[in-house]
Amino acid sequence: MVAIFIKRHKSMIRVSIFFFCIGCGIALCFLKIDCANAVNTENPVTARYGVTNGVEYAVLVLTSPLNEERRNVIRSTWAKFISNIFVENGERLYKWNHSWTEKQINHDFIKVYFVVGTKGLNTEKINMLKTENTRSNDMVLLDNLTDKYENLAMKMKLSFVWIHENLKNVKYVIKCDDDSFVRVDLIVKDLEAFAPQMNSYTLNTYTSTQVKTGTAQHQGLYWGYFNGHARVQRKGKWQEQDWFLCDNYLPYALGGGYVVSRNIIDFIAKNADYLSSYRSEDISMGVWTAPLDGINRVHDVRFDTEWISRGCLNELLVRHKQTTQDMFQMYKSLVDSKGGNLCKSEAIERGAYEYKWNSRPSQCCNTLHHLSSRNKDSIPGNMKT
Question: Is the confidence at residue 381, as pLDDT, over 70?
C-alpha cells in the first residue's frame, strides 16, 4: 500500500520535500544572522568576566591564587544572599528569600567578583584559575599583577581601573577579603534606602557620621569601621618604611570590609599612576580619599573588620578573620532562623568604639559601644527600598 501511494503521489511528495528544505534553509539563515549579531556585539571582557551593563553593586573579594576553597565556600554561603534583594513592580525590596531547598534567583544588578593577580604564575596554575572561572564566571584575573601581600594597594588600584572601564553603571563597591563573611543583602538594602546620606533613625543606632559643614549634600560614601589613631608600623608584616605624612595613619576604614561609591572609584582609577601606594590597601585607601570633598565618611560598629574578630552578634554586617567552618556555621544559623540569627550563640569578646568625627583623629576612638541586644528596627523582614 505504501509503495502504491508513493508511486501515485510521487510528484507531490517531491514538491513537499523541496519546499520543506527551502523553509529549513531560511530558518537556519536567520538563526546564523542572530548568532552572528550576538557574537559581534559581545565585548570579549563581558564574555570572560560575566560583565553586564546592569551591575550596580559590585562585591569585590580580594583573594589569592591558591584560595579556591575559600572562594567556593563564599559561593556556597553568603554570596547566595543576593537573592534576598528582589524586584517587584519596578521597585527593589528586601525579604528573606533563602532556604535549603528553594532555587535561588540572582540579579544582574548585584554581582560578586573574585580578584586574583596572575603575573608570574606557571601555566598549570593559570589554567586552574581559568577552569575555575569557566565554571563560576565571577573572577577578575589581573595578568599584570604579581599576587602578594606587598602588592595589595596596587591590586586595589587595578581592580578599580577594571571596574571604571567595564562596569559603567556601578554605584557602589563592597570590598572584602576572602576570610570575611558579608551580609551583602543587608548592605545593599541600606545602600538602596539611605545612601549616600545614611541618615536614618535605624542606622543612627550603629553609625557615627562625619560632620559636614554648609548645606551641600554628600555626593559620595566611604562606609566601614574607621580608625584614626593607629600608629605607623615600622617593622613586621605591616611595616610602612615609606610613610612620611604624620605620626599616625590617616583615618581609614579597616580592610576586612568597607563600601565606597562610584565617584571614589573613578577618582582612584583616573589617578592611579599618581597615587602613592602603601603596604596595606586600607591605609592606602585612607590616603587616597583624604583630600576628597563631598564624601560622607560613616563609621559603623556592625563592620567587625579589625585584625581579630570582636565576637559574634546578630546585627553584624561583616565578620572578618573567619575560617571556612565559621562561614558554614553562620550560613546554617541564618538559614535555619530565616535570616534572624547570624550566630549560633552571641558572644562579645571586645567592645566596639564610636568614632568621634568632631575630635582630633588621635582622640577619635575611645568610647566603647556594646551591641547587647537586637534593635527591633533591625530585624530582617519586609523592607521597601
Answer: no
**Cell numbers of 373, please?**
541586644
Question: Strands, E, within the chain: which ranges?
Answer: 57-62, 85-88, 91-94, 110-117, 139-142, 172-177, 181-182, 207-209, 220-224, 226-227, 252-253, 257-261, 295-300, 303-304, 311-312, 318-319, 347-348, 352-354, 367-369, 383-384
The secondary structure of 269-319 as a DSSP string is HHTTTTS---SSHHHHHHHHHTT-SSEEEEEETTEE-SSS--EE-TT-SEE
b/e burial code for range 158-176 (CB count within 10 A of at least 16 → b): bbbbbbbebbeebbbbbbb
**Which residues are CB-contacts of 118 (< 8 A; sequence separation ≥ 6)?**
65, 125, 126, 129, 141, 142, 143, 145, 147
**Is the pLDDT assigned to residue 203 strictly greater than 80?**
yes
Name the pTM for this structure: 0.82
Distance of alpha carbon 161 from alpha carbon 242, whole angstroms: 24
Percent of the chain whose predicted confidence (pLDDT) is above 90: 62
* Closest to 269 measured CA to CA, from 188, 197, 184, 173: 173
Beta bridge partners of 248: 231
- Give me the residue spans of the domains in the chain: 2-41, 48-384
pLDDT of residue 279: 84
The residue type at 260: V
332-335 contacts at long range (C-beta below 8 A, 24 or more positions apart):
334/81, 334/98, 335/98, 335/99, 335/100
* Whole-angstrom distance, CA of residue 216 vs CA of residue 196: 12
Return d(Cα 21, Cα 10) in angstroms, integer. 17
pLDDT of 213:
64
Rg (CA), the chain: 26
Beta bridge partners of 353: 368
Q: How many Cβ atoms are within 10 Å of 233's Cβ, its own excluded?
A: 16
Instruction: Please enumerate in sequence order all residues whose Cβ is within 8 A of that of 385, keeping only pairs 6 or more positions apart, or say none.
Output: 85, 91, 92, 93, 94, 189, 192, 193
